[in-house]
Amino acid sequence: MQSANVLLKKIIRNSVLPFAAQHGMKKDLFPLSRTLSLSLCLKQDNSGSPSGKLDLDEWKKVMKSGLQEEVSETVSKQKEHSALAAAREILEMWRLAGRSVPENITEEQLKTFMECPSKSAKKKYLKYLHLKEVHKKNDKRKMDEKRERRLEAQKQASETDETKRNSFMFLWANAMDKAYSWRVAQSMIFGQPLIFDMSYEKDMSVREVTNAVRQIVLSESCNRKSVDPFHLHFCNLKDDSLYQKEFIKHYREAWGKLLVTVTDQCYTDIFPKDKLIYLTADSPKVMKTFDHDKIYIIGSMVDKSIKTGVSLARAKRLGLETAALPLEKYLLWNAGAKNLTLDQMMHILLTLKDTGDWKKALEFVPKRKYCGFVNKPVHELKKTLSLINTLKFGKRQEEARRQFAKNYSKKLIQK
């Protein structure tokens, strides 16, 4: 019987009382729990012994004590919550009154404030928290200002460096442009002439004329930046031709200020024929050295279909000397045409004019067109080949040739 009562007490304390405390049903729940317990006790023991009454009284005491503890805890929490709310209201009133009160205060600081023994101690504590908060804000503001100043200084430094660099590059480009223009101006008086023949408009399409003008523009830029530039002549350039339209489209206002000689006359009417050499890949004559006293002519022609013999035929009609670059003499040429672009020809002629070195000049030939440079002349290569054949076949072949020569000479003597 006693063990059943103890078990019943535990069940009620662990399940019924917390549920009743959460829903505010403690007073109404007690009669139900009491009737349940009494009914259980009556079912188990119908004798109605005095020990049952004593157990019931103990159970009443335990229930009352648990209820008082929970009620006291709830009341203390409510008092604490109300005290914190009252303290916050006091702080808000003091803040509105102009006293030194922190803007943000934690519950621990608020509890410490409530535990202060006097009003002056509370004021001092609040003033301490206020000054601490002010110092923290000042430190943060100083850090932000310092970071902003550093970023602004970096930005100004980068802008200053960029401005200096841009201004330096502008001054440098302006100075170099003046130097290049001065050299070209001198070449127009003292320099060696170089002619671009503009008489191939009918042999090209519009796209090919555009490509030809683009290559001539690159050639003019390369010539202007060289140490000893040519005096460029654009001959046979008619007004309102495709050549002129493309030049104006590219140079715009600078076309009239370009340091080149532009004329619609033929070069044979300006220079003597004995000084003119027409450079064409179809020429049977190979150019050996660069002659500074001659005037070289480059045909301003770009043909995708590679029309052979057009420039050579024009040079023959005019009775001019022709020449081709010695590509096979210095390069191990692959299969294909030996036509080069106009700007590549300009690079080659400028290098020959400055150095006279064919190997250095022919480095401007595209790598896809040859396997490498010939290290030795052709006759030395033939000697090397014969030596290889001799070593390959041995001394017997050489002795047989000598014996044949002796026998042949004897036969001639006998006759």
UniProtKB/TrEMBL annotation:
It is an enzyme of class 2 (transferase). It catalyses: adenosine(9) in tRNA + S-adenosyl-L-methionine = N(1)-methyladenosine(9) in tRNA + S-adenosyl-L-homocysteine + H(+); an adenosine in mRNA + S-adenosyl-L-methionine = an N(1)-methyladenosine in mRNA + S-adenosyl-L-homocysteine + H(+); guanosine(9) in tRNA + S-adenosyl-L-methionine = N(1)-methylguanosine(9) in tRNA + S-adenosyl-L-homocysteine + H(+). InterPro entries: MT_TRM10-typ, MT_TRM10-typ_sf, Trm10_C_MTase_dom, tRNA_m1G_MeTrfase_euk. Its EC number is 2.1.1.218, 2.1.1.221. Residues 180-372 form the SAM-dependent MTase TRM10-type domain. The keyword Cell wall biogenesis/degradation does not apply. It is found in: Mitochondrion. One of its GO terms (biological process) is methylation. Keywords: Coiled coil, Methyltransferase, Mitochondrion, S-adenosyl-L-methionine, Transferase, Transit peptide, tRNA processing. This is tRNA methyltransferase 10 homolog C. It comes from Pedionomus torquatus (Plains-wanderer).
